[in-house]
Amino acid sequence: MDQLLADDLSAGTLSNPDVVLANQGMTGIVLYGLVDMVNADPRLENCVSAAEFKEGAAAADQTNAIVIEGIKVTGIANDGKITRADIMELSDWIAKKSP
């Protein structure tokens, strides 16, 4: 299959308009546009399967959810700013939350 599609894949011309790869973020807030960046990268369509693409975008969305939860739980953004010390606190919170 790779040989059959090699020219189209290398030229980036292989596409299927019926397949939508975009994954809408569930958190409502996309930190630094991570999910949007994954969705908007045209190179990914040429080298990543649709299932892997959606799985990666979903993982980015889950990461956003963890960060947002941590910001809320720790209260690090209550003053409207996130400092280096706040990020370190958030990192510690995430590490403690991880299995």
Key structural traits:
single chain; 99 residues; mainly alpha; 63% helix; 0% strand; elongated
The helix content is 55-70%
Rg is 18 Å
Q: How far is it from the N-terminal to the C-terminal residue, by CA?
A: 40 Å
Order of helices and strands: HHHHH
Share of β-strand residues: under 5%
Runs with pLDDT <50, length 5+?
A: none
Number of domains: 1
* Quantity of strands, as a count: 0
Structural class: mainly alpha
Number of continuous helical runs: 5
Largest sheet: none
Net shape: elongated
Itemize the secondary structure elements and their pairings:
Elements: H1 2-11, H2 34-40, H3 42-47, H4 50-74, H5 84-97
Structure report:
This protein has 99 residues and is an all-alpha fold. The chain is 63% helix and 0% strand. The chain has one domain (2-97). It has helices at residues 2-11, 34-40, 42-47, 50-74, 84-97. Helix 2 packs antiparallel against helix 4 and helix 4 packs across helix 5 (84-97). The radius of gyration is 18 Å and the shape is elongated.
State the gist of this model.
This protein has 99 residues and is mainly α. It is 63% helix and 0% strand. The longest helix is centred in the middle third of the chain and has 25 residues, at 50-74.
